[in-house]
Specification:
Length: 172
């Protein structure tokens, strides 16, 4: 039995705020990809899906004069660090197992090399699949952040993924 479901996370106002900022449709798509890849690699699909759902919750809004400033973003972005911290705080608040919360936070921290001075990290299998899951849903020019989904449809997708996770044997 899991301490926290995807639906618990999804319905929390902090998750709503940050998932909407970086694109709820993208977050859900990455959660599904992470679940699928987790299954293929015999990993804990609950951890994989949660990391996928929350991986981009650290994004900041780099606007200048009302327009997204990509240079400002590239120069100053630390969204994996912020995301790892925000996700960890949220998960602990919701009553997540602390070992799981840490594993999820680290998968979020290492889901991209974009903010690091070099790209020589050696990832765990779980960290690697969260990175792949994100890349599977990426669109040119960051367009994946702008795809939209209705709240009710999003909620139903989350509920369905929760059921798949509950039916999987590779969860602790
Ligand atoms: Fe992403």
């Amino acid at each position: 039995m899991r301490d926290v479901t995807l639906l618990n996370i999804f319905e929390h106002h902090i998750a709503q705020k940050y998932l909407n900022r970086s694109g709820l449709a993208h977050a859900i798509a990455v959660a599904y990809h992470a679940f699928q890849l987790g299954k293929e690699h015999h990993l804990d699909v609950d951890i994989a899906a949660k990391a996928g759902l929350l991986h981009d919750m650290g994004h900041y809004t780099w606007y200048k004069n009302g327009k997204w400033d990509y240079d400002l973003y590239k120069q100053n972005d630390i969204h994996p660090i912020k995301g790892a911290e925000r996700a960890h705080k949220l998960l602990i608040r919701l009553g997540e197992n602390p070992i799981k919360a840490k594993t999820i936070a680290l998968a979020i921290l290492f889901h991209t090399d974009s903010f690091l001075p070099s790209n020589d990290i050696v990832r765990t299998p779980l960290q690697q699949i969260v990175k792949w899951a994100d890349e599977k849903d990426e669109e040119e020019g960051g367009m994946h952040h702008y795809r939209t989904i209705e709240y009710e449809r999003a909620k139903q997708s989350i509920i369905r993924l929760d059921e798949w996770i509950d039916n999987d044997k590779n969860i602790d």
